[in-house]
Amino acid sequence: MGFCNVPQPRLVCAEYFASEVVVEATLVKTRTIIDKDDPDGIQAFAFSLRTDRVLRGQINGVFRVYEGNDSGRATFDWKVGQKYLLFLFYLSTEKSWGLDGCGNSGPLNGATGVRKEIEAIQKGHHHGGVIHGLVSNVPGVRVEARGTHGVYKATVNTTGEFEIKVPAGRYMVRATQTGYAFSAADFSYENPNDLRVEPGGCVQVQLVASEVAR
Asked: What per-residue confidence (pLDDT) applies to 6?
């Protein structure tokens, strides 16, 4: 199984809108892909699934999920015959679908809370959305989201988190604090310099601070 780095947890609304496809599907076949340079080593796994219900995007019939044999693997077990709720993006190099192993994908029988959140998103009639974020441990950081509809501001809380409600649209997020410079963290889910907030949706970013020489 995979190992999850920060930031956690992945918000359902953020992963839903970031995914090309969200689908309920049944696993029908598992195939192991051997490393051609190391016949005793496993390079990846290919999972064939049958579409049961599409919640976002378009996908039909039987499709394949590719999963490298590395720390990015899913944190759940794959079992033939089991139903899954999957948040997918297309891997053109593999001609298959991929998923965030540390996201909200997993067995359908354990996804009641996630399904309720998806249903709330689909039933909602919202004009705006939310930018969620985390800033490395620097107190009093001010954050602003600048977009076509204006500038919206917030201050991080004691745990470094912030939340900004904005109209749907595109935004750039930046943080400011005397003596520090901020940039996107390696594990930031979305690019803070180019955020798209859909009606009723949310995005999730993480920033890191570095001290500025005086």
From this structure: 53
CA distance 117 to 120: 5
Positive or negative, the Cα torsion across 210, 202, 168, 99?
positive
Q: Which CATH number fits domain 12-123: 2.40.50.120, 3.40.718.10, 3.10.20.30, 1.50.10.20?
A: 2.40.50.120
**What is residue 63's predicted lDDT score, i.e. its pLDDT?**
98
Q: What pLDDT was estimated at residue 187?
A: 82
* Whether the model pTM is above 0.85: yes
User: Which tokens hold the place of 175?
Assistant: 């943080």
- CA distances, 121 to each of 23, 168, 199 (Å): 15, 14, 9
* Residues in Cβ contact with 8 at an 8 Å cutoff, skipping those fewer than 6 apart: 102
Please provide the DSSP assignment of 100-133 as one string. -TTSS-EEGGG-HHHHHHHHHHHH---SEEEEEE
Can you give the pLDDT at residue 46? 96
Residue ranges per domain, the chain?
12-123, 128-211
**Encoded amino acid at 26, one letter:** T
Specify the CATH class of 128-211 in words.
Answer: mainly beta
